[in-house]
Each structure stands twice: as structure tokens, then as C-alpha cells.
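Q: What would this complex look like in 3D?
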Amino acid sequence: DIQMTQSPSSLSASVGDRVTITCRASQSISAFLSWYQQKPGKAPKALIYAASSLQSGVPSRFSGSGSETDFTLTINDLQPEDFATYYCQQGYRVPLTFGGGTKVEN
Amino acid sequence: QVHLQESGPGLVKPAQTLSLTCTVSAGSINTDSHYWGWVRQYPGKGLEWLGYIFYNGSPYYNPSLKGRLSISTDRSAKSFSLNLRSVSAADTAVYFCVRAHKLELFFDAWGQGTLVTVSS
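A: Here is my prediction, written as C-alpha cells for the whole assembly.
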């Protein structure tokens, strides 16, 4: 299985900050990487797919980059509604696997 | 916009079969652009992909489930189902039904999730 490692596992930030979360794959996954946001008691919501493509309806302050094994999710001008847990997921090979999550706290 | 809704028992006894159904509304599973499947989330927060199926094709399962899982579709009823056999306490989780984009293999639609507890 392809292992996905996120860092950090949690971070503290303030409204207006720029936040960066990284995700590393245990082998090359090309650009088959997506990012999700999850709030307590809710299902995850897709933010980014194909490493850098913004899912429909997602604010442009979210962006993704990277390829092969190293990927980044960036949130510019952090908003109050962005405090949540973020997950990466590889779609390169079955079984599809997720990172362990990064909690963005105030 | 497609809407997914899980249904099924919230409590299952050990060694029994966990059965859930996902009803698809404002859309159809008869599409060649998406897979339909299941993801679960453990109480600690980890997410695990369980498997998915194409509307007219073979299912794909996570090998970690060791042959206990089956996923099927019911095109006439616009739903798909999960059956997980021989459950144990380790299968206690929130179960989400999902739609996966066929080319990019990311989950672009999720049900709200349903908590299933395995306990006697």
C-alpha cells in the first residue's frame, strides 16, 4: 500500500495567516493527490484534486502544488470557517489511502 | 447536485454482517464518469477506503478487509449497498458512502455518514 504522511499533525494559526500543510507519499503518485477539509460531525469535503485543481465552489484562497511524492496545501488569508482538519489522499493505486490529518486550530 | 444518504442499523453484534445502503438522489449511478463506494472513519479520526464499484462493472475492495466485504448496485432503485461479514469491535466506525471521480480517483460527493457500533 502507498503510505501518505502529513505534517504537521496540528498547527495553531490566526485569521489572516497563510497556512501550509505538507503531504508525502511513500512512492511516486504522479499528480493523483487530493485534499479534503473536515469539520466536526461532518463529512470531508473535497478542496483540491489532481494536486492543484480547485474543486468547484471552493474559494480561491485554497491552492495545491507538488508532484511525484511531495505535495502542499496552502491556505491564504485564513478565514474563521477554515479552522478544521485537512486530509490528503492518493488516487494513484488501489487501495486508495489517506494521510493522518492536520488539525488547524485557532 | 447529487445527494447521498446512508441508511442501516447503528448497532451490530460481533460475528454478524454489517449491511448499509446508500440512496442516490438528484443524480443516477448509471454514469460512466464515477465509481460508487464506501469510506469509514475510526473514532480516532483515521480515514479508510473500503471499496467501490462501477455501475456495470466489477467492484474493487481494500485487501485489508480480507474478503469480508461486498458492494453491489441496484440501478432501478438508484442505490448501492455494503455488506461486511464477520464484524468485530475493530469495525466500529462512521461509514460514509461516496462518489469517486473515475479518472482522478478523488471523492467528490459524500453522504453525511452513519455511526455503526459493533457490540454485544
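A: To summarize the key features: The radius of gyration of chain A is 13 Å. The mean pLDDT of chain A is 97.
Q: Very helpful, thank you.
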